[in-house]
Model the fold of this input.
Amino acid sequence: MSSALLIEQALNGLQFGVMLFLMAAGLTLIFGVMGVINLAHGSLYMVGAFACAAVAAYTGSFWLGLVASLIAAAAAGAIVEITVIRRLYNRDHLDQVLATFALILIFSEGTRWVFGSFPLYLDIPKVLQGAISLPGGGQYQLYRLAIIGAGLIVAIGLYLLIAKTRLGMRIRAGESDREMIGALGVDIASLNTIVFALGAALAGLAGALVGALQSVQVGMGEPVLILAFVVIVIGGIGSIKGALAGAILVGVVDTMGRFLLPQLFALFMQPSQAATAGAAIASMLIYIVMAFILAVRPKGLFAVNA
Amino acid sequence: MKRIAAAALMAGLTFAGQAMAEPVKIGMITTLSGGGAGLGIDIRDGFLLAINESGNKDIKVIVEDDAQKPELAVQIADKMVQSEKVDILTGIVWSNLAMAVVPGVVGQGTFYLSTNAGPSALAGANCNPNYFNVAYQNDNLHEAMGNYANTANYKKTFILAPNYPAGTDALTGFKRFYKGALAGELYTKVGQTDYATEIAQIRASGADSVYFFLPGGMGIAFMKQYSQSGISTPVMGPGFSFDQDVLGAIGDAAIGVKNSSHWSKDLDNAANKKYVAAFKAEYKRLPSLYATQGYDTANLILSAVAKASVKDKDAFRAALKEAKFDSVRGKFKFGNNNHPIQDIYVREVIKEDGVLTNKIVATSFTDHQDAYAASCKM
Done:
């Protein structure tokens, strides 16, 4: 096994983790501030991808599409918060799960109604096409490096927003004690809408960035949503720092597991069996890691209010 | 949605058929919602095109959406057989749904005609006289590509597929005919959309070619990422990964890729020319192989209906088995296990008038029969 391959796989893990972070950051903020389990977060990811693909196809510019994805997902998030989620703050988590699950169905079939059943085409922008050379002789896709960069910029931006601004202060206060900041005269309703729209915009951004790599189709958000939940549980629900650490951990563990486990099994099994068994264990690996972390730290790595 | 669609179809198809004494009732269970809906919609559209073209007023089609869920498909099948009393069931896209529905349905004496799924379990020892597969046995297209890899003189192919029965069947099918060595064999997660890990391994393996079976969105994602990775190793796949339903989403990255299929839009026969033109006129898009399988299935039923009453099961079964219809595949016949014996071609993805599509470049098999027919006692 060459070092070039190892470096490439490490970058793959990092890129996957950064993408998961964009999803998990919004999810964990929404849960932290409002106490809402938002299953429809994956639909907002899909909205971002479709908005980007549609605008990019119409205007020919990926960048305009990217802007459209942020706007569309944030708008969809704000509308969902005002019309549905707002009524659920004082309800049981089960009611929230039911309502946001219904939203998944509405978003999926609504998207199919507008865009049809066939996957849309979204290509990587011209300047980010192709691959660049890595030290050690390997090559790496430029666009994936750009995703890593974009994700890290978002992480820094979120940190500054939450640690340094008035809005961030209110978000932190909201996480600690909702009733108290309401009593102190902060407009909780609009704070909630802003947080929800922010989380939605991050999901939409992730959808648009990933849409250019994968396929833009109905139902693309749900598999990512499950992983995002794993990430926030590992990281500690409500913690942005935890979401970043959890996302990169999940990304690297999943990528390395898929890469190394079949090779490990091949040392003592038939190649064909090793491939099947290795793939099966690799797909369980992140859940095993999650179980282990929860056994040691039941509230996650960076628990809020621990 | 599905109820509206079904009601609209019923309304459209029954207005002229009410006066008929004994209509033939066909139940179609297919995937019209969720990620796999494109396939089911094509099957339905191809099927209904043939029924409408025939002008046969005795035929009534009921369409329902299975949402790609086996338990839902079983419920719909029960309802269609027990209360709707359909004579023929058809339409299922996915092998796992077919496995859940078909044995029960044919066991009750209802005919089932497969428009896509061809699991090996239904082709061998568990074959059934009431089960007809008008599409292919699952292994066939992969076998054809394995055979083609020998012709193309590939010696070191890297193969990958999702880790589920149709995925393992696919790679088994490929290996059944491929004579070279394997550069690697990978099983990925079902529904996986990021293939960076696998692509890195392909690059490191020194393979001279890649064969993959990744249906639907998985294949789109793989091809887009592969083309951007800087690897120039040629790719091969089954027709499913390069058909009309997904080519638009893959984009120009697909141009030049060789893939296997039992049908292509440029097959030179009168039935096919008429079909492609009619499909384009009706639906404003090019037909996929799924639409074609729906179209052929409907024409097979029409040919049998013309010869025998569907109530006379033995006569109708014999009429189906004869398969005397103008298949758009040019020639078509059933083997002993009611699975097709047909030619399988190698196609290349090209751009034609700004639209990505396929053209035939070689014939991999002539009159090819599946590997399980021998263990079927019919």
